[in-house]
Amino acid sequence: MRLLVLGRGKTGALVAEVARERGHEVRVMGAEENPGGAALTPDALRDVDAIIDFTTPQAVIPNIIGAMQAKKPMVVGTTGWYDKLAMVRDLVRESSGSLLYAPNFSIGVNVFFEGARAAAAAVKHGYAAHIVERHHAQKKDAPSGTAARMQQIIQETSGKELEITSIREGDVVGTHVMLFDSPNDTMMFTHDAKSRRGFAEGAVVAAEWLRGKQGFFEFKDVLAGK
Ligand SMILES: NC(=O)c1ccc[n+]([C@@H]2O[C@H](COP(=O)([O-])OP(=O)(O)OC[C@H]3O[C@@H](n4cnc5c(N)ncnc54)[C@H](OP(=O)(O)O)[C@@H]3O)[C@@H](O)[C@H]2O)c1
Questions:
Q1: Is 69's pLDDT higher than 80?
Q2: Confidence at 199, pLDDT banded by 50, 70, 90
Q3: What tens digit of pLDDT does each residue of 142-168 get?
Q4: Long-range contact list for 32-38, CB < 8 A, 24+ apart?
Q5: Distance in Å, CA 37 to ligand 1 centroid
Q6: Model's pTM, two decimal places?
Q7: Which residue has its alpha carbon closest to ligand 1 atom 19?
Q8: Which uninterrupted H or E stretch holds 76?
Q9: Is 135 one of the catalytic residues?
Q10: Residue 171's pLDDT is what?
Q11: Is 139 one of the catalytic residues?
């Protein structure tokens, strides 16, 4: 595939590397080449099969609009824009486009989400629960998209909105902890990313999966092999 990766940062650079390893032709654009999404015109994207976005919460919406106007499939790894999720879903539908997003493209975290769904039963039985997430000091959004998704899953199952504590320090790739506490015991579930490679591989696999599909998707659709 001919892939356009938006973002030359920590994750975008690795996505480009993984995509090349998987035999794709890759072009990468950073902020300077694409101010406000200006580079994403139908003409400029004519030879692009799919776009993968790992940019910033500010940059991602103009990028999505450009991709949908050009009718190009898009994988969005960027987080911090989910307050606009409904608007983006409508845009994808109206433009008969194709978009897949995930707060976290690692297989482990997506399995962890299912663990969160199961563990929410403890909240219904009176356990006090709390989410803690820890990321590198440069991370722009808080709480992390992954922690927000865990909170949403537990709320759907238990009816309670858990508090999230966000810690920003050093070069931590990403750690998420769910804590459940009762007078009798404590449960702790931890996911700790060792590197960004799991995110990059998941995003490239998602772009491959998206080929020929139309609609609004999440990473769990890829894992379910829909
Ligand atoms: N879903 C997942 O699995 C996952 C995993 C890791 C990270 N993330 C998310 O992905 C995003 C990026 O993370 P990161 O750690 O890679 O951040 P980062 O190192 O800060 O990189 C962000 C990059 O976006 C570029 N950028 C800004 N505006 C742009 C535009 N209009 N067009 C193209 N590029 C633009 C920046 O370019 P300049 O350097 O030129 O400013 C920078 O290179 C964050 O939202 C993060 O939360 C998601």
A1: yes
A2: very high
A3: 999 999 999 999 999 999 999 999 999
A4: 34/6, 34/59, 34/63, 36/62, 37/62, 37/63, 37/65, 37/66
A5: 14
A6: 0.90
A7: 9
A8: strand 74-76
A9: yes
A10: 95
A11: yes
